[in-house]
Amino acid sequence: MTDNEPPQQRVALAPQATHEETLVAAGALYKALNDAGLGDIRPILDYARDVPYVKLHRIDANQATRLRNLVRRGMDGNYSLAEELRCAVLDHGLVNFPVPLVCGLDRIALGDISIHTADRLACILGAEPGTELAEVPDWPESNAVYGRLTAAFKAATDGAFMDMHLHSYCRRCDEDPAIELMPITLDVARRFVKALQDAPRP
After folding, report:
1. Residue 29 needs a FRET pair 20 to 30 A away by CA distance; which of 13, 108, 127, 156 works?
2. Helix, strand, or coil here: 181?
3. Cα–Cα distance measured from residue 174 to residue 127, given in angstroms and rounded to the nearest whole number
């Protein structure tokens, strides 16, 4: 490995990077670590497999802590956004809403919400109140809430998209129906926060 400036990276690597691409990636990683004061962590190219890998060899506890702190600082905005979303949801009394979690560099993970919570969220985002739900909503009721939430979210966030999956009541596993909210991009999360902050409180 050399301390010289690595060659320019390609915009995108092949699914199985070549040895040359892997060497370039290792060089770029080392330079970034060195620039951040972590030059004692040296990426090592692993040629022992059919597909080459970059390994961070024998990182001690102190180095691991410094590397963790560096990554966390670089993602401070993501963690702050996840906390903003959590607070915006709780501000509307949605205590059963899943805690938003940072998911990679550009997404916030959510999770499952009950049909009753989904119904409340739809109303908060501007949907007209629906009919009173049964304690365990059946398929038509759940599907109606799913449709109302999808439309309300899109309208309240200026057309943002959140992938949602409806899971109906399962007699075999005795699981209540739920709507699974898939991870959202940071931009969508910001729009979601704004929509919740702008929504009237009860």
Report:
1. 108
2. strand
3. 29
